[in-house]
């Protein structure tokens, strides 16, 4: 009885075909078709082996080092545009050691027009689009593109229209040297005296 059930099951499995066969009368073999098939299979095999090799040989190497030099200063680069005239704006840094770093040393206060020109607005829109796409995608190509994007010049293009509009904002740019402790950067009304 068990043998009979086993034979029926085996026959059923042999007859089961998820993909229907094309009748032999529809199939026509040719040398060019066989050559194309061989080239396609060879290319697929080669690409599969290459992808596996890249996957196997790729690794991340992390190196960390503790900063032992507490006395040196850290340079912070700043480029901010504030919608207020330069005569009313001041910037400074106050750290946890209660050390005040005055901004007069390395920062430049430059009067500018706050609204972007059409070319600058297009640049900003494109930059935002690229950054949003990079946040969504997480593949190796995007990591490579992100590193290339960071190394590329991402500076705002210069204003191309020479408008007669008077400056209504202040661009604060330059650098500050601060202690290697936590602190706060303040942009306030009024200058540090």
Automatic annotation (TrEMBL):
Protein name as annotated: Endoplasmic reticulum-Golgi intermediate compartment protein
Family: Belongs to the ERGIC family.
Compartments it resides in: Endoplasmic reticulum membrane; Endoplasmic reticulum-Golgi intermediate compartment membrane; Golgi apparatus membrane
Protein function: Plays a role in transport between endoplasmic reticulum and Golgi.
Domain Endoplasmic reticulum vesicle transporter N-terminal: 13-98
One Pfam family per UniProt: ERGIC_N
Gene: Ergic2
Keywords: Endoplasmic reticulum, ER-Golgi transport, Golgi apparatus, Membrane, Transmembrane, Transmembrane helix, Transport
All copies of domain Endoplasmic reticulum vesicle transporter C-terminal, residue ranges: 165-191
Domain of life: Eukaryota
Species lineage: Eukaryota, Metazoa, Chordata, Craniata, Vertebrata
Residue ranges of coiled coil: none
């Amino acid at each position: 009885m068990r043998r009979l059930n086993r034979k029926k099951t085996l026959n059923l499995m042999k007859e089961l075909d998820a993909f229907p066969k094309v009748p032999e009368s529809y199939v026509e073999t040719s040398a060019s078709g066989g050559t194309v098939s061989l080239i396609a299979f060879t290319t697929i095999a080669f690409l599969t082996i290459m992808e596996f090799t890249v996957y196997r040989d790729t690794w991340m190497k992390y190196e960390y080092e503790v900063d032992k030099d507490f006395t040196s200063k850290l340079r912070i680069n700043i480029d901010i545009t504030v919608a207020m005239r330069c005569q009313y704006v001041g910037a400074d840094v106050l750290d946890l050691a209660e050390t005040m770093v005055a901004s007069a040393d390395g920062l430049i206060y430059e009067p500018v027009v706050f609204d972007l020109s059409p070319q600058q607005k297009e640049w900003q829109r494109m930059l935002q689009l690229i950054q949003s796409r990079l946040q969504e995608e997480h593949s190796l190509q995007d990591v490579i593109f992100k590193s290339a994007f960071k190394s590329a010049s991402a500076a705002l293009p210069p204003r191309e229209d020479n408008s007669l509009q008077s400056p209504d904002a202040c661009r604060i740019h330059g650098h500050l040297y601060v202690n290697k402790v936590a602190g706060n950067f303040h942009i306030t009304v009024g200058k540090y005296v």
